[in-house]
Amino acid sequence: MQPQAIGKIDFHRSNNFMRSWSPQTGEICREDIALSTGRAPPSMLGKPVAHGERKSVEVPARKKAKEDPYVNTVLGAIKAVEAMAGAATSLQRWLKSPPPPPPPLKEKSKPVQTVPPFDIQDIPGAMRKIGAPVGADLMDKWFAGALNYPPTSDDERDGLNQNGIPYPPSMFDTTSVKIDWVLKFARAQRGLNRLMLQLETTAARREIANALRPYGNRRHIWPWLECQGDIVRFHKEFQFQQTPVEGTLSQKLTQFFTQSLFNEGLPDDLTCALGSFNLYVAISYAWFDHSNKSAVVTHISIYVKDNFTFTDEIRKASQYLGHWNRNHVAIVAAHEAAALANIGWIDYAVVQGSLYAKDAVLYPVKNSDFRAWQKKHNQGGDFVIYTDRLTMKLDTPIRVAL
Questions:
Q1: pLDDT in tens, 344-379
Q2: Which of 363, 321, 364, 320 is nearest to 338 (CA)?
Q3: Are 391 and 284 a contacting pair, CB within 8 Å?
Q4: How many separate domains does the chain show?
Q5: Residues 316 and 366 sit within 8 Å (Cβ to Cβ)
Q6: Residue 290 lies in a domain
Q7: Do residues 283 and 212 lie in contact, with contact meaning Cβ atoms separated by under 8 Å?
Q8: Structural domain that includes position 230
């Protein structure tokens, strides 16, 4: 049976070999098929053993009492004689009985066709197919994380989870993404160039002064040592300027239909890993000029902080993340336009050819699907990504009054 369609629809599907988008035409399927969230979740990362929890122990079966071999021999002989007598009687009855009627002919049952399932946990595998291994690894980590999410965008900004408390330490990833890797991408390098031109704005200078004023009685300060290598504290106390790369929204994969679709081919690994993100700059070293009541910043640190989250804005349509199957991602322009206009689009799959063929169906995926998965499995953790720091000496130090 072919899918019931409501008309043709145009979309762009990934051409993984050419690393580009391929214009396609398919049908909107109105069959009862949808993205699956039923597969059991992966083993939770760092899952603690509950207090008082005990491992199950097998109780060995009791040994049977030792039996008398003479009694067993006699009983076996009696059973053999009884069996022979019963067999002779059965043979006589069979010889006198009429032949049985032939069995009725059975109709060959047709094989039941099923739609190849696609589970939300298959998306990281598809990411690897389109050349985004870092993004895939981060999503795998999300699925394996303990339940953690910010209910609103304000909570996301403040780092508060569903229980109204700050993210636990396990929800800060400081090793998966490296700043050198980020800066290999042209748009990130352009963002760094913009950032370097914004170091001495009025707002930036005010932030520098506020950060250094509590230490004004010292000769100098190394903020990273002051924070004992705690990147969260370092960011909170000594960061003074930032610039967005591809916008300020933190939702993952937003650039699928802006940057990637129309400009640079398929969504690259940076898009899958960080989506839209910010580059930050913090004080790395400063000395204090007590005679002039000022501080002089000579070294800075550049890094990325980003939330790997699926939080939607209140009263807005859930963020559309493309149509997916195990080998491809596609962008349905009608769905994208509806999402950008905050109009809830009907979430139908897109089908090419037979509904039952491999990779024929592409399933729409949104932020809300990940939230539904969390609710269903009581697992899945939004987390904060910090890269390592790129430290550099300024050609022209920044002097601020204290």
A1: 666 888 998 888 888 889 999 999 999 999 999 999
A2: 320
A3: yes
A4: 1
A5: no
A6: yes
A7: yes
A8: 5-41+115-401
